[in-house]
Prior knowledge:
The structure holds two protein chains of two kinds.
Chain A: H1 2-27, H2 33-37, H3 44-53, H4 60-72, H5 86-121, H6 126-140, H7 143-157, E1 170-172, E2 175-177, H8 182-215, H9 218-225, H10 230-259, H11 262-267, H12 273-281, H13 286-314, H14 316-320
Antiparallel strand pairs in A: 1-2
Chain B: H1 2-9, E1 16-21, H2 36-42, E2 47-48, E3 50-52, E4 58-60, E5 63-70, E6 73-78, H3 92-103, H4 110-113, E7 116-123, E8 126-131, H5 138-142, E9 146-147, H6 150-155, E10 182-188, E11 192-197, E12 211-216, H7 220-228, E13 234-236, H8 243-248, E14 252-267, H9 288-297, H10 300-307, E15 312-314, H11 338-347, E16 355-361, H12 368-380, E17 385-391, H13 393-401, E18 407-412, H14 419-427, H15 446-457, H16 461-478, E19 482-494, E20 497-498, E21 513-514
Parallel strand pairs in B: 1-12, 1-13, 16-17
Antiparallel strand pairs in B: 2-9, 3-4, 5-6, 6-8, 7-8, 10-11, 11-12, 13-19, 14-18, 14-19, 15-19, 20-21
Amino acid sequence: MLVFIVRRLVQAIAVMLAVAFIAFMLFQYVGDPVTHLLGQDATPAQREQLRSDLGLDKPFPVQFVRFVGNAVQGEFGLSLRQGQKVSRLLAERFPATLELALVAAVMALLLGIPMGVYAALRRGTVMSQMLMTVSLLGVSLPTFLIGILLILIFAVQLQWLPSFGRGDVTQLGAWATGLASVDGWKHLILPATTLAIFQLTLIMRLVRAEMLEVLRTDFIRFARARGLPDHLVYFGHALKNTLVPVITITGLQLGSLIAFSIITEQVFQWPGMGLLFIQAVAFADVPVMAAYLCLIALVFVTINLVVDLLYFAVDPRLRADASGVARSI
Amino acid sequence: MILSVLLMAGSTQAVTLRVANQGDAQSMDPHSLNESLQLTFTNNIYEPLVARDKKLGLSPGLATRWSQPKPTVWRFELRRGVNFHDGTPFTADDVVFSFNRAAGAGSDMQGYTNTFKEVRKIDAHTVEVETLTPFPILPDVLTNVFVMSKKWCEDNKAQAPVDRRKGIENAASFKANGTGPFRLKERQPGSRTVLVRNGTYWDKVDTNVTEVIFTPIGNAATRVAALLSGEVDVMEPVPLQDVERIKASPKLKVMQGPELRTIFLGMDQKRDELLFSNVKGKNPFKDKRVRQAFYQAIDIETIKSRVMRGAALPTALMVGPGIRGFSAEQNKRLPYDVEAAKKLLAEAGYPSGFEVALNCPNDRYVNDADICQAVAANLARIGVKVNLQTETKVTYFPKILRRDTSFYLLGWTPSTYDSHNALSALMASPTEKGQGQFNLGAYSNAKVDELTLKIQSETDQAKRNAMIKEAFEAHAADIGHLPLHQQALAWAMKRNIELVQLADNYMPYKYVVVNEKAK
């Protein structure tokens, strides 16, 4: 177990370095922040001066080494656009993104699993056919379109829910949460739904397919032969065995929820990291962009690790060759 | 504090104004960035010595009077009895401090202060600015240089604007203490900024607004939705395709008016061979007939009606109405005439046209990429094949500033509201000292250069205007650039809101009145 974790950590560091390298290299070509940093009246000499003061004229390896050196200490320098520490900007924006992603994930799970189970058990009924058709829409409609449609219906026409922003936030220490107030939840519903729809349909289709697969296996037939009641067969045996791939997908999707909430955040002006990233791109704010990518890479690496550990808990076959430590997880 | 604000406003009711803009002020520091959104926002909190009225004319601000005792000296008499938001009295020391701060390291206001030789205090309420050379438009220039409190800046270690070079943050980026009609209450960059009325403001103002909540909403569709759903009261800019839709709503209205910015096309007139063209060994743009052919081939009225949906003012000059030196009689375009253009092109030796690349931003000016598309279609009719290259402003500007272009689109607003700025930045020959910095095609005319230098220090206004006119005439005779139009501002708001739309795209909240009854 310990060896396993250490090995994964080493891999993680390698991945992080690679991501940092690629991010940093790519962003050298996205444009020149100096033209945006200085107004139209600045002289060429002033621009040159600023460029050299910021170290932007140094060769790429020098800039990269300095970036990594700072990043290791959790320091990504100053945002060129806002003149604030990148680490603080990200820390301020992280709660918004994480809350959005978690609520979306919970919505997708709470609705997706029962719907998938239903579609599998009641295969062929009108209701399950309809679920399958609608879910196709959910997978194929682009996020921004879903977001704009939701805004049009629920904010502009019905005026039930707000169309943008995060609403009232409550400060819990360093964490600014929107989950502690009614206003915060109201603001959360539309973006979370937008973000959840794709995941929901994905989970539903996955659960349905897996469930159908499992229901065909021998041990379900044996269970039935033993005269176990339906609900035990379905939910005790079949569903539990369905969940392994679902956990994998959900885990990875949580990462992508955080990473790809960019579009949702932009449509709903949700003050999270995705929005910060978009604004940074429009300004060639390299420190923010690179730090964001590194953070996202960290989230993916961490989630992958957690998912691997969860396998131990769910699938007994994996536990067999471990030392039994994972049993208690 | 809110209670006192309400009492001072003489109202028993709090009036909140919710404003959405496509971007956010990047800092609360009034000297950190010379950009119109930044300045229009901080202008509610901080004030200049010389202000602008509802017609962009000069009016007393923190100075009540100004005079020019010597050609190189301007004297300002300061307003008495003005306090900063924290209660500190405003004096000459604050002005000297602020002007030096604006001229110092890290400041982006150096373009306004680079004519300063010395700023000196005469007494507690008089200040003199000595300039390096006679500088007739100093009061205009100072309308964008805001005054901060010396004591507050020292207490908050904000004596200089934020220094990104050293990675040092600055309290003035998040906090503010000015003399203006509104004080900063809350600042969440990129998400919301709240202003409240300054109950002890020295001037009577129109507004009945007690609180302003400013929200940046980058996505245009969301911004329109926020207005339609009633979550914001005012928003700008309105995407042109949504103007009719908003007008159709009984609760909303749209305000459109000309902006000071002039959109134009520039051509490389320096290189002996264009970088991006199939003509080898010579540069067709060096031939005036080619430039004129391009000019007359552009169907500006159709661009106005189709691309800009009527929201543009076609122009023949490089500055628009509202800029000192603009003259309506000079503002006459050469006629749109495809046959004449073809003929000119043939005379110049290109009877079947040629190929050239046009560089264009797609996220900087109103419908910028569409304008270029239309120009390309127009030029195709005289046989010129335009290879259109549109890209985001982040990569566009560094590229054209390197002069890595043969043909480009640019927009320009003179930050001094004076023609000299446009002459010097766009039309004068590029020099080491920064003149002609945005004259990216290196258009050059000795007469224009000479006049530009003279205009800078001519203090006789009538003479000065005559020289500006002469310079514009010389530029137009050369067809140095191809002026297109002034784009229009488009703001949308609830019907019960009255505000003043200034051509420099400033929205001072002190002019905003919310009619509660009409709600």
